[in-house]
Amino acid sequence: MIGAGPVGLSTALLLARWGVQVLVLDRRPGRDSTGSKSICQQRDVLDIWAAAGAGRVAEEGLAWTTARTYYRDRELFSWSFEREGTLPACVNISQARTERILDEAVAAQPLIEVRWNHDVTGLTQDASGVTVHCGQRLLRASYVVACAGARAQQVRQALGVTFDGEAFDDQFLICDIRADLPGWENERRFYFDPVWNPGRQVLIHPCPEGTYRIDWQIAPDFIPTKTDISRKIRQIIGDRPYELLWHSTYRFHSRIASRMRVGRVLLAGDCAHLLAPFGARGLNSGVPDAENAAWKLAFALNGWAGEGLLESYHAERHAAALENLEVTAATLRFLVPKTVEQRMRRRAVLEGGVAEEVDSGRFAEPYWYVGSPLTTPSPERPFHGRPPKGRSCEPAPGVILPDLPLPGGRLREMCRDGFLVLLGDMCDSGLFVQVLGKVITAPLAVRELAEIDGTGSLAERLGAGPGEAWLIRPDAHIAAIIPHAGPESVVAAVSRALGGSPDDP
After folding, report:
1. Sign of CA dihedral 288, 293, 299, 305
2. Looking at the domain covering 6-64+74-164+253-335, what would its CATH class be?
3. Residue 161: exposed, middle, or buried by beta-carbon count in 10 A (0-12, 13-18, 19+)?
4. One of this protein's Pfam families, by short name (predicted)?
5. Side by side, which strands form the sheet with 273-274?
6. Which residues does residue 250 pair with via DSSP β-bridges, in sequence order?
7. What's the fold here for domain 171-250?
8. 392 or 121: whose pLDDT is higher?
9. pTM exceeds 0.85, yes or no
10. Which fold has domain 369-505?
């Protein structure tokens, strides 16, 4: 593992959960624990961290519920997250605290070793593994996951991977403050063109322990002084007392690696894609990279699957990165119009205040593997596209399973130990177990929905009908929904979900 940031540590924890020994290398001398950095973590990422042993992120984070959008001094609209399961839809927590929680989980895991001061300068591969060059030191691994961040040029160059995209001129000033702001404690606020930042945007997020994160879009050549920062904060909070905890400026990039898998090396997180910050799609896509990589590498290492499954990492996560770039690029065209026509349209939309037309950044959501080679399509359950903002997607092949509450737990907690077959009424689970056990070597469990929830409410909420079989992947995505299911049709779906042909035995 290259990189001990949140994506690298998440990958290590998830691999260790599958019994894989992991060595994590990081070029830094130790943990940098200052600044909020990436703060918004959505429900599906919290679910992954809970499975990895870092559920405290959800427990300690501040669960904000409402997003308000303003144009100058007028509120245009607000929206709230849909309630689902027991995990909050989103929490705000500093990246520094998230990393400490992950560090503690890693320290408790004997299968993981972290080595600081190890700068990876090159990679060479052969048929049996990867040689990792740390200056004159050479280390050997069966596979490598590169989570070394945006500045991992040497790693990408060693793999022959390009990192095309663009950088943006405008800067952003970030400030973490502690202040008493009644009514703001559970609300995200986005301001277009406020009088105290004319022509640009401001974003305000509540964080734990009475702290707030404020992002100002500022001019490319503006170098803020302490006086400038104080003035900008006062324009928002008035004469209330406050404490400035941290501040920084940054420019953002939109870039994507040409390949996210090169032989035995997988690229994940900022090493593979950089996104504009609107919608919090950075870390919220890096952690799903980690989960996707971890279960597929574990299956390959255990001989449960082969080349097709590993290659699907690139197919699925590169497609996810492209969608995130598309979504954030549309937001940027609205936030930072470059032509007269774009500026006129933006102004007209903001003055009209129609919520569906105002783009302040569609919040992070899981990528749905509808077109994945691992997914068995179902004409009876087509994918209907992105749901309205803040709402969950209807179940369909490729979509992540809803995280529904169960007696004593959550539905997704049943999905992390291998493939899961959920059977509706009129299915003989014993027959399915007998047939699947003869041809599938990968971990797989068969459960009847009526057995999991005798009230029938689980089947009703899923929309699962009699005679249906639902195949769920180890990352909780639905691989297939098969009507009038027999064991043979489920075997074909499992084979496909393992990266083989649907006709493979």
Report:
1. positive
2. alpha beta
3. buried
4. FAD_binding_3
5. 163-167, 253-257, 273-274
6. 172
7. Alpha-Beta Plaits (3.30.70)
8. 121
9. yes
10. Glutaredoxin (3.40.30)
